[in-house]
Amino acid sequence: MKIKEIRDLSYEELTQKLADLKAELFTLRFQNSTSQLDNTSKIAEVKKSIAKVMTVMREIEIKEGK
């Protein structure tokens, strides 16, 4: 997911997106442990997306806090 797309979302949408990404990461890790996951690089992509969402959420919190 591109950072520009993430910055266009509202805080509530970011919260929902974060929950969805965490659920997807859990699923991918479970598939990886049972050897059902073909593309293991997808785990890294989802982790990076989670980090991006959390960063933008923190930016919003700081901006609103001032």
What are the salient characteristics of this protein?
66 residues; mainly alpha; Helix Hairpins; 80% helix; 0% strand; elongated
Helical amount: over 70%
**How many individual domains?**
1
Average pLDDT metric: 95
Q: What is the fold named in CATH at topology level?
A: Helix Hairpins
The CATH level-2 architecture is identified as Orthogonal Bundle
- The low-confidence parts are none
Structural class based on helices, strands and sheet pairing: mainly alpha
Order of helices and strands: HHH
Largest sheet: none
CATH class: Mainly Alpha
Gross geometry: elongated
CA-atom Rg in angstroms = 14 Å
How many DSSP-defined strands? 0
Q: N-to-C terminal Cα separation, in Å?
A: 28 Å
The percent range for strand residues is under 5%
Number of contiguous helices: 3
Q: Your description of this structure?
A:
Helix content is 80%, strand content 0%. The protein is an all-alpha fold and 66 residues long. The chain has a single domain (3-65), classed as Helix Hairpins (Orthogonal Bundle), CATH 1.10.287.310. α2 (11-33) runs antiparallel to α3. The radius of gyration is 14 Å and the shape is elongated. The mean pLDDT is 95.
Topology overview:
Layout: H1 3-7, H2 11-33, H3 41-65
